[in-house]
Amino acid sequence: MSTDDGRPGGANGNVTGAPTLEDVARAAGVSRATASRAINGGALVSQETRDAVTRAVVDLGYAPNQAARMLVTKRSGVLGVLVPETDLRVFSDPFFASVYHGVVSAFTDHDAQVVLAMSKPGQPAETMLSYLTSGRIDGAVIVSHHGTDLARATSRLTQPVVFIGDPGVGGLPYVDVDSVQAAQVATRHLIGQGCRRITTITGAMDMPAGRQRQQGFLDALAEAGLEPAGVAHGNFTDAGGRTAARELLEASPDLDGIFAASDLMAAGAMRVLSEAGYRVPADVRVVGFDDSEASRQTTPPLTTMTGRAHEMARIAGRMLRNSLAGRPFTYPVILNSELVPRASA
Amino acid sequence: MSTDDGRPGGANGNVTGAPTLEDVARAAGVSRATASRAINGGALVSQETRDAVTRAVVDLGYAPNQAARMLVTKRSGVLGVLVPETDLRVFSDPFFASVYHGVVSAFTDHDAQVVLAMSKPGQPAETMLSYLTSGRIDGAVIVSHHGTDLARATSRLTQPVVFIGDPGVGGLPYVDVDSVQAAQVATRHLIGQGCRRITTITGAMDMPAGRQRQQGFLDALAEAGLEPAGVAHGNFTDAGGRTAARELLEASPDLDGIFAASDLMAAGAMRVLSEAGYRVPADVRVVGFDDSEASRQTTPPLTTMTGRAHEMARIAGRMLRNSLAGRPFTYPVILNSELVPRASA
DNA sequence: CTGTTAGCGCGTTCAA
DNA sequence: TTGAACGCGCTAACAG
User: Fold this and answer.
1) Residue-wise pLDDT tens digits, A51-91
2) Hey, are the CB atoms on B136 and A66 less than 8 Å from each other?
3) What's the rounded Cα separation, in Å, for the pair B247 and B59?
4) CA dihedral B70, B75, B81, B83 (to 10 degrees)
5) Sequence-separated (6 or more) residues with CB below 8 Å from residue A215
6) What is the reported pTM?
7) Fewer C-beta within 10 Å: chain B N or C terminus?
8) CA–C1' B34–C16 (A)
9) What is the distance between the alpha carbons of residues B53 and B40, in angstroms, rounded to a whole number?
10) Pairwise CB contact (< 8 Å): A65 & B71
């Protein structure tokens, strides 16, 4: 074993200037272990020493070195909201704001912090996982995953992960809205309003939400004995909605109804309609999806389906919390969606 | 190809399942030190052993334990964009999206990751600093700081920090737009358009940008021999702009010009004007600030001043990078702002 | 209730 | 070019 570690009381090698627990302990006249206990609020420490330590902490401006703490506890106290989309997308769609806020709200009385991680433009989605494997975060809520690679890879992780939206892989916990049912309700509403030449702008087809909303749309049409008057693929964004709307108008200039799989796409489509001289709802009725802020600010206000982003996220947060506490549950939670009737349909 | 699954050598106490450098070294038949060198790409390692180590890394799925690495290197490889505002605010103002994106763009060819930290509703602003003092991030760009407490506290830090917007404390590096000049230009434009009963909706008065834009407004008016027809205080948000606009209309129903210190406030004000039966620009001319996406989507499109958020952030990012590299510079960088004439004025 | 003793996993001298 | 030894700062047994 080592002979002498050469650290006699006086000169410690604290070059960085940041005070260490050792410094605090010395200033308080106790041992490191005791100081640690006093600070971590935990166990049996006399009021007297607790005060002394607290005073030393304040005096020295001590802050625990998280790296050292993590190394031994194997926990970082940080939870992630992982979004495999670029920051441009994340900041331009209020859906993500709701999700982040929802997850945070599930941890308000919990002393973990919640960070938002987005992917850089070039990066493959799996890079997000390195964030988990590196041990920098204790668990995560993943939203807006494309394909199933990421989901599949999470199974090798030790940290708990909860998805928002069907991950497309069995046995993984997730929360979602019933997109098929929601799309059916939306489409039936259009039919009920007298539309007969109905089209849809889908979401990203590499995401279950995109496929399921299209499916519900087709179901409702079939149920009423109608053929779709057009199907254009979008990607949930405003720009995607505009492009898709142009396609739709070109192929079916006489369309009288549009179901868009997101409010952003619906808003983009409405602008294209307006530019092309169509009146909403007189000529074309439009239903969106998400019940986001955007749906209240279009002219006319957009009829939409509740997306329940905040609730999904809150529930996902709770599920994550349970997993962290050793009470995982791996079955999905499915919320239903309701029609919010406004002027556009 | 060592295809041994399970834990070879048995006796290590690796309970967590995550392979350690020790495991890699053993699998490659070298010592920890050598494995470390091979992985960190660094120094003198023979091609042969480098390959062996690389293979072992892949086989075992090894990922370095960041906590351990941080503990010894004293660096985390993470940079922060610190915003002492709630997530609701951050997500609803595109200014922050631009800032984040700008900072990220300054680090694209750099292998540090950039995280966004916002404050929780209750939290005092200084809590943000604990993120720095804990050693979890190596440096930060701070934006939207209120008051000077936070700025003052940063002087005790060892990590470099760059502000966007005048921190109000000398000797700290920051980048800003010349708000006084910009507000003057905006106000002169209003005057040039024939406005005579001109008002302003200010930003938050505990922020230099808020005070300076008010100052520039007053300067330009004085220069033209005019009295302000009203001054209402906002907080840069849409809701704040609406409230302020109502105050203004109540006090001066005959106003014919509004300079708002942000596009969001201008947009809110325009909606209030419209509801109250005023036409823009016929009855009232409006100029905003930021040249954000929002300014293009109002009806009519908003005349505004370039806020240059992205450029400021990019420059701040570069300054941070220089500081990290040991080349700090502590003088401010001030960008000027230009008028973007659109239909509202 | 408190101090002592071990490591956590890694980078990094210093010798060989 | 490689290996042995040390310590980063902290928490967690285990004794007192």
Assistant:
1) 889 999 998 889 899 999 999 999 999 999 999 999 999 99
2) yes
3) 68
4) 70
5) A180, A183
6) 0.89
7) N
8) 15
9) 11
10) yes
